[in-house]
Amino acid sequence: MTKFLNFIDGAFVAGSGEAFENRFPTTGEVIGEVSAAGKAEVDAAVGAARAALAGPWGRMSVAERVGLLRKLADGINARFDEFLAAEIRDTGKPHSIASHIDIPRGAANFNVFADQILTASTETFEMATPDGAGALNYALRVPRGVIAVICPWNLPLLLMTWKVAPALACGNTVVVKPSEETPATATLLGEVMNAVGIPRGVYNVVHGQGPGAAGEFLTTHPDVDGITFTGETRTGEAIMRAAAAGVRPVSLELGGKNAGIIFDDADLEATLEGIGRACFANTGQVCLGTERLYVQRGIFDRLVEGLAAKARSYRFGDPFDPATTMGPLISAEHREKVLSYYAKARADGATLLAGGGVPELQGFEGGYWVEPTVWTGLPETSPVVSEEIFGPCTHVTPFDSEEEALMLANDSPYGLATSIWTTNLSRAHRVARGIEVGIVWVNCWFLRDLRTPFGGAKASGIGREGGLHSLEFYTELRNVCVKL
Ligand code: NAD
User: What residue ranges are annotated as transmembrane (predicted)?
Assistant: First the structure.
């Protein structure tokens, strides 16, 4: 049984909060115990992060920090198999996903932001003055200070380093609160931090739940200078309220109910391949995943049939077996939520094309499995079509015109991502312009250039991460005006 400790000021320490179990979602077995940070440990972590700003870390040149970031990437890659096993045991996600996405991207984030900080510039303005001598304005990029990093469980290492890497690149220190469901890789990263020589207190990890626990202790801590959060919209609202005290900046990457729009001139085979992944990858537990599909009437039947066949083609099982293509959901509680929508779809009279239940799997009976599911026939007002489920399921609605497709896709409080499938390039540009989201993919999904702005519109978030946009959040720009 693994024991997960908090990582504070360069040392692994037990917390004064109530310890809780860590389960393997594939079987439901208890595989670890997590030591929860109480208020005292959160105070200690924030204190260590504050002190580290005044230590060697705060005096390091950008080049020295960049050198350490590259060592962090190498350090993760050197222990790739350990990170991989830790992520698989926490999430149950297949080896094929974690080894291609979670761990390589977790390491790559440090290299990406090392490159970014080396090439980032600031603006300069020459100005005229009445005496004719003029003045020069230039901006300095200074770290914000202590950053609270609050993470979800769906892509634990990837989403955590997506925040930690730019925060450190900019010279901040961090206190990370990983999801209570996935404590492993954030903890393991503490060992890598020490091994590569990151000064103590720069990276801290506190474990525990959100409300009334480590998450809330951290986000309400008066000595935290900024909060970066990825998770549900409702939690984002609570965190924004917490950040209001002391007027701390927040970066919020929140939920979605993402639409896919498929026109009848789309390349059907390529579209099915892409949209199949968008609906079912990572058991549907991807913030960018598609849970609403709008398909032009001319190809509706063929598309729905093809998607249902994709849904039925997944192979459940041991996540360490390379042949497994679909894992379980993260927890019993999350499965209950997803199955409540499966029941709601039945009650609302949906036509079920695939899935809709729980697979029978010998040897994995205690795991949190659900079947990939495709429905049609529900009204847009059904909660199945309007609320984020975060499971491997999608509802497909036919449309006739481009205007109708846009209207249907935009009729949501969320605005994270949309994919458009068509061979008509002009139409793709028009729809991309009209859709109210932060991220549009045309004839692809989850194709990520890490320099691009990433984030949501409407209730899907505030701010953008990625490339220069991350640096904007993790630094304060200070203008210096020099009279010549
Ligand atoms: P969640 O909001 O339940 O939890 C996220 C984190 O917040 C956890 O660490 C949790 O302990 C903490 N937390 C909860 N309440 C808190 C509080 N009051 N104060 C401080 N911390 C608190 O989300 P989840 O279930 O872990 O993740 C799934 C959600 O994340 C989905 O809605 C999904 O769409 C979203 N998500 C968004 C993105 C994005 O980039 N936009 C990426 C991944 C996931």
Answer: none
